[in-house]
Amino acid sequence: MKVSPSILACDFSKLKEEVKSVEGADFLHLDVMDGVFVPNLTFGPFMVEVINKLTSIPLESHLMIIDPLKYIDAFAEAGSDTIIVHVESRSDMIKTLKKIKSRGIKSGICLNPETPLRTLLPLFELVDLVLVMTVNPGFYGQKFMPQVLPKLEKLREIKESKKYNFLIEVDGGINEETAKIVAPYVDIIVSGAFIFSSENREEKINYLKKLS
User: Fold this and answer.
1) What is the DSSP letter of 138?
2) CA neighbor of 155 nearest in space, from 94, 202, 109
């Protein structure tokens, strides 16, 4: 299992120390919210650039924004290793994913809990990553939604039957118990509070990594 701590759960007043405390992770997950696509507002490319200077961990920029196509270049230049966009946004998804790939970085597509999996069917050939939200996006600290599990199971089935190469990632309400529930279906776990609220973050990361 690969692990991607969600930086939104860290203490930004000591960002350098917080980033260094999760150096054993496989990725860092950066939640970018525009206050339009989702009600909350976080940060833009500048913060990605700052974090990129603090670590060699690959950065996943998760763009919860209304028109991600406009900002692909900015987030690529800021140091994103993967850019994840929402299928529910108003950008043309094929153009957006091709734009990400043209920058020589990995492309990801994300869908919200209520969005049918069939909306992704035309996109699987264009992505390196499929992120399934197990909470409604926009706010940190929500409870895991178990009704999303059949979607994860079906996605795993599609990936294996069609031999797609994308990784499956899950984000939302992941803790010691819910991580075990999703582990059979996913390749990457995003976790915020479970990791950053712990005094022993290495232990929490290693716990998640050992799941299968």
Assistant:
1) T
2) 109
The enclosing domain of 138 has a CATH number of 3.20.20.70
**Averaged pLDDT for residues 19-36:** 97
Q: Which is the catalytic residue, given 11, 92, 171, 187? A: 171
Q: Could you give the number of structural domains in the chain?
A: 1
Is 171 labeled as catalytic in the residue annotation?
Answer: yes
For the chain, report the end-to-end CA distance as a whole number of angstroms: 6
Range of the domain at 9: 2-209
Beta partners for residue 28, in sequence order: 59
Instruction: Output the furthest CA–CA distance in the chain (Å, rounded).
Output: 46
pLDDT digits (tens, 9 = 90+) for 116-161: 999 999 999 999 999 999 998 766 666 899 999 999 999 999 999 9
Whole-number Cα distances in Å, 57 to 3, 24, 25, 53: 11, 9, 7, 10
Instruction: Look at the pTM and tell me if it is higher than 0.85.
Output: yes
31 counts as catalytic:
yes
Out of 26, 31, 81, 92, pick the active-site residue: 31
Q: Which long-range contacts (CB under 8 A, 24 or more apart) does 102-107 make?
A: 103/72, 103/73, 103/76, 105/76, 105/80, 105/81, 106/81, 106/82, 107/82, 107/83
Backbone φ and ψ of 104, nearest 5°: 75, 20
Length of the chain counted residue by residue: 212
